[in-house]
Design a protein that fits this description.
It is built from 7 helices and 6 strands. It has helices spanning 22-33, 52-65, 69-74, 88-96, 113-127, 140-149, 171-180, and strands spanning 43-46, 78-81, 102-104, 129-135, 151-157, 163-169.
Length: 188
């Protein structure tokens, strides 16, 4: 659960990928291809490792081989783990080398985890499309669906019992909503 109460699924792919035999990379390909379906890709790195930059390059090469050049070029958010093993200068050096957003954390001490969760919450919120809908008093299923799958931003009930809502939905949820309730009148 994120700070807003939004629930997410985190999926981890192969952790160590440099110098893997070709047949082993092929075996992990299906796992790696899960990245193509991800709403957000976080590159989790051991910031204290002596070869962290080489490891970063290896991961970026694999992501490029999956067709994610644009995301890599834009700069992936990087979770710099094990900051408890770095001094201030080492952390500053690692943070400077990040092209995207640097999210320093220590899985051991918990330092930075709240900031990471807040980052994920905001990144998902920024992907949302806001719609306005009016739901009749007898359509509780419709209303329940929106509360379960979206973020209800405002709600105003009128004298006739109709609920006027503005709801933030992720693109995939908006598509599901439109399939589930094809007659809904949506204002975007």
């Amino acid at each position: 659960s994120l700070p807003s109460g939004r629930r997410v699924i985190l999926s981890d792919t192969v952790g160590f990928i440099s110098a893997l035999p070709t047949q082993l990379v092929a075996a992990f390909r299906a796992t790696l291809e899960e990245v193509l379906e991800a709403d957000i890709i976080l590159h989790v790195r051991d910031a204290s490792h002596a070869d962290t930059q080489a490891q970063k390059a290896d991961v970026e090469a694999v992501l490029r081989s999956l067709g994610l050049d644009a995301k890599v070029d834009a700069g992936l958010p990087e979770v710099l783990n094990k900051i408890d093993q770095l001094d201030a200068e080492g952390l500053a050096d690692q943070t400077r080398r990040v092209t995207g957003t640097a999210l320093p954390v220590s899985a051991l001490t918990g330092q930075g985890i709240e900031a990471l969760l807040t980052y994920l919450d905001e990144a998902l919120r920024n992907r949302q499309q806001v719609i306005a809908v009016t739901i009749g008093p007898a359509d509780g299923r419709h209303l329940a669906w929106l509360y379960a799958h979206g973020e209800v931003l405002t709600r105003e009930d009128d004298e006739e019992g109709q609920a006027h809502l503005t709801v933030g939905l992720d693109p995939a949820e908006l598509a599901r909503y439109q399939r589930q309730f094809p007659d809904a009148e949506i204002e975007q």
